[in-house]
Write a structure and sequence with these properties.
Number of helices: 8
Order of helices and strands: HHHHHHHH
Number of domains: 2
Structural class: mainly alpha
Largest sheet: none
Number of strands: 0
Distance between the termini: 140 Å
Length: about 230
């Protein structure tokens, strides 16, 4: 092999060496060109599709967290501004969804369904929280069943007090009866308030208050009837 190479002149060897170098450089240039085309395609896909899709997905996450925070604040404050912040966050989610669908080929049916379910539940929770009758079922029952009877009884006691006061309030027995009826009306108001409070909040303390007020009212009624 060495003897065969020695047959060539120095000029021929230089030409052969330069040719070999040029061939290697040409091969590298071709490979670089092909790889650059592939890299350009990948970079274009990342910049034009994947990166906007990632930003849109992150925007959905941020707006979702904001909407959840707004729901929590609304449950505490019942403030229209917190409700408005929730609506703005939901609108932001819708905009981010549109961008995500534009830059992603993945199906979004599950995401759409879950977001719609979240919005529906959040709306229902805030609606119930803003309505005392829906938020406190005991209050609704009291308004429908207890209040009419309580008002009727209070009206009857007021009528009795007026009748006794106009009859002959100057006498001591009549005056004492009027005072007892007035006290009974006040104690009856405590009974109604205690009952409504217990039905709304189910508090043992309110139940004890109702029992105490009821006992005092019954005792006062028995004293008047004697």
């Amino acid at each position: 092999m060495t003897h065969w190479i020695a047959r060539f002149s120095i000029a021929q060897k230089n030409v052969f060496g330069y040719g070999l170098i040029l061939l290697v450089m040409f091969s590298m240039a071709v490979l670089t060109y092909l790889n650059m085309g592939r890299i350009k395609g990948v970079a274009s896909d990342v910049i034009e599709q994947r990166q906007p899709a990632a930003f849109a997905a992150d925007a959905i996450r941020i707006q979702l967290e904001r909407s959840m925070a707004s729901v929590g604040l609304f449950l505490q404050s019942k403030s229209p501004s917190d409700r408005a912040h929730f609506e703005a966050a939901i609108a932001g989610i819708g905009q981010a969804q549109a961008v995500l669908k534009q830059h992603s080929n993945r199906p979004m049916d599950d995401l759409d369904a879950e977001l719609k379910q979240f919005v529906a539940k959040a709306d229902r929770v805030m609606a119930i929280s803003a309505d005392d009758q829906k938020n406190l079922p005991g209050m609704e029952y009291a308004n429908q069943n207890v209040n009419p009877l309580a008002i009727q009884i209070s009206g009857l006691m007021s009528t009795l007090i007026s009748a006794e006061a106009e009859a002959d309030a100057g006498t001591i027995p009549r005056r004492a009866l009027v005072l007892d009826l007035a006290r009974l009306r006040g104690e009856w108001g405590d009974v109604v308030a205690g009952l409504r409070g217990f039905m709304a909040f189910r508090s043992p303390a309110l139940e004890n208050n109702f029992t105490l007020y009821s006992a005092e009212t019954l005792k006062r009624t028995q004293e008047i009837n004697q």
